[in-house]
Amino acid sequence: MGNGYSQLTLDERIEIFRLQSEGRSHREIGRMMGRHHTTIMRELGRNGLKSGYKPAMADHMAWARCKRTCRLERLGPLRDHVVDRLACGWSPEQIAGCLRQEEAEHSISHESIYRFVFSKAGRALKLHRYLARRKAKRGLRYFKARGHAVPSGMSIANRPQTIEKRQEFGNWEGDLIQFRTQRGALLNLTERKTRLCLLFPLESKQAEPTGKAVAEVLKRLPQTVRRSITLDRGGEFADHQTMQQKTGSEIWFCDPHSPWQRGTVENMNGVIRRDMPRKSDITDYTRQDVEMLQTLINSTPRKCLDFKTPMEAFEENCNGALQM
Fold it and tell me: Could you tell me which residues are beta bridge partners of residue 229?
């Protein structure tokens, strides 16, 4: 349990002024008033003037600070820019990073954007619906891990460190995004180094059509761009031997109930869920709709890529791989 805390009153500020005039130290003043000495230090530092500490002015400054709204509430153009980018699927870090790179007139930190989203004004605008997880309150959620074991396959424990550290280009992570209707699924293949994602709608999540879809998507790329694929142990990837033969890629499998071992594709799933939530029906989306979503995601700058887009990073690495 945390300790209770109350704001300093005008009477207490007058007492601080009197004791300070007597030459008392911060610790002495705090002990005599029943306050922590750091409270006294902060009060004198934040609400003091160059001419000295004045209780009435200090009380007014503290009141004004409490009533002061955040920058996004005060600056209309900046607020409109942030809200527009959130509506386009950008994360607060992407918005803040691009504002710094563009040397815009007004910049802001991603934490300030999050605070605005979860503030009273942000909740009124329902801005949390634009975030990846769409949570109305900040905090963790519990997700129940599930899946079926694959009888054989190469363990992620034996995967080379060059893949783990993202030093090598052409290593993918794969997953199926499922929906409440259970009438289809969406195949998501994400390249670990550049975060480029390739999406493919499936009518069935059975092993054979899933394996064919993985091969169809990756066979369009040069061999140097499809070195390996990391998958979970779900039954939809049971046909991994056929995938390996058709793509020439090494197949690695995560440990059971360990989605964090494929964090890249799991994060991408969260981005895709913004436009295709779990309650969606995949049959309502055409192949063109999926390709448009894929282009939108791959054209959005990412903080981990120094605010390049996945498409730009993929083209740079792809050209380098073909020249080797």
Answer: 172, 251
How confident is the model over 65-102, as pLDDT tens digits? 776 667 787 788 888 889 999 998 888 999 999 888 88
- Using CA atoms in the order 104, 105, 108, 113, what is the torsion angle rounded to 10 degrees? -90
pTM, entire model: 0.58
Kindly give the pairing relationship between strand 197-202 and strand 185-191: antiparallel
Residue type, 66: C
Inter-helix orientation angle 55-67/10-21, to 10°: 140
**Token code pair at residue 204:** 């069935």
- Tokens representing 220 are 């369009």
